[in-house]
Design goal:
Layout lengths: L5 H6 L2 E3 L5 E6 L11 H10 L6 E2 L5 E7 L3 H15 L21 E2 L13 H12 L8 E4 L13 E6 L2 E3 L9 H9 L4 E4 L2 E4 L9 H5 L5 E3 L4 E6 L9 E2 L1 E7 L1 H18 L9 H8 L1 H8 L10 E2 L6 E2 L2 H9 L3
Parallel strand pairs: 5-6, 6-7
Antiparallel strand pairs: 1-2, 2-4, 3-4, 7-12, 8-11, 9-10, 12-14, 13-16, 14-15
């Protein structure tokens, strides 16, 4: 058996596996998007160094199993061309040594408005921009970008979920009073659109910026304002202690504000993480330190627009396994 430092191994983006002397390489794919030709690089690593298989992860990356510890240096050299094309300008020290960190997980994204008509922005581009801003980093943080409130990428299960919002605008001269937008909003969304005197009227307090009215309007009376806004939901998680959905932190926030908040969270983690633990997830740090201190820290130096709303409190939906255990005990 080889003498391997498991902490160094995992920070180099390799897994500790159930097989002795065998590891599994994690390959990042920011935004879940890459040129088809890059798949050949993954194939080569899997066939030459692994067991010939590739696992597609829930975070839109690849895992290559069956790699022997002794071959890690060779794998890292073979990985270099892939790092150069996937890290999108990130300055990585000593590329020949492979990934310098793996704590912050691959930034995932739905397919976005490059393909999907529901999406309010280019999710891939934002995910790649975030990747460049935060990687490499050892802090255990999960981030996902989704184009609209349909939330196909499960942003509500992330530390940071970025949901696209559109300011929709009505050209009254084109509105024919067909009620398609009002019916859709009432049945599928928040009933933010009503009809008054055969004209559609939007309630900005109820509108969540999904943009579905734009899609159903037969005359093109509704359009999306080209400025992109975002709902930032935070501190969602799965896990063994207290699974919960993320809660809204910012609403109608602009792009740079979202990016700066994410940058600031790494400073907050460094200041408050419990270093006696092998790792501490962000949500548990905030639970321990308190939301007011977190909010003040991550909004430091952030310029918020007049339309941006900041949550006074966070209202989570979730449960604790301890209660379930007590319930089971009552019946044994």
């Amino acid at each position: 058996m080889l003498d391997v430092n498991t902490k160094t191994l995992t920070r180099n983006a390799y897994r500790v596996t159930s097989e002795r002397d065998i590891t599994c390489l994690r390959i990042r794919v920011p935004g879940g998007h890459l040129a088809a030709g890059h798949l050949a690089m993954v194939q080569r690593i899997a066939e030459e160094f692994g067991n010939g298989t590739v696992h597609l992860t829930t975070r839109q990356g690849f895992e290559v199993p069956g790699i022997h510890f002794a071959r890690i240096p060779e794998v890292n050299l073979a990985l270099r061309p892939l790092l150069e094309v996937l890290e999108l300008g990130v300055s990585l020290p000593a590329l020949d040594a492979g990934y310098p960190a793996a704590g912050t997980r691959n930034v995932s994204a739905c397919i976005g408005n490059r393909v999907c008509p529901f999406a309010n922005y280019d999710t891939t581009a934002l995910a790649q921009e975030i990747e460049c801003a935060i990687f490499p980093n050892h802090s255990h943080v999960k981030i996902a970008a989704t184009g609209c409130p349909n939330d196909c990428v499960k942003a509500h299960l992330q530390d940071f979920g970025i949901i696209g919002q559109a300011v929709v605008e009505l050209d009254a001269a084109r509105c024919i009073g067909c009620e398609a937008c009002a019916k859709t909003c009432r049945r599928r969304v928040t009933a933010a659109i009503v009809m008054r005197n055969q004209q559609a009227v939007r309630d900005p307090q109820r509108c969540i910026g999904c943009g579905e009215c734009v899609l159903v309007c037969p005359t093109g009376a509704w359009t999306r304002n080209p400025t992109h806004y975002f709902r930032l939901v935070i501190l969602g998680r799965t896990g063994k202690k207290n699974p919960r959905l993320a809660a809204t932190f910012l609403e109608w926030a602009e792009r740079e504000a979202v990016l700066q908040v994410i940058r600031n969270v790494y400073v907050f983690i460094e200041q408050h993480i419990d270093r006696s633990l092998p790792k501490e997830h962000l949500g548990y740090i905030v639970d321990r330190i308190g939301y007011p201190a977190f909010r003040a820290a991550v909004l430091t130096g952030v310029s918020l627009g007049p339309q941006t709303c900041v949550a006074e409190t966070l209202n989570f939906a979730g449960y604790r396994y301890e209660r379930a255990t007590e319930l089971i005990a009552d019946y044994t």
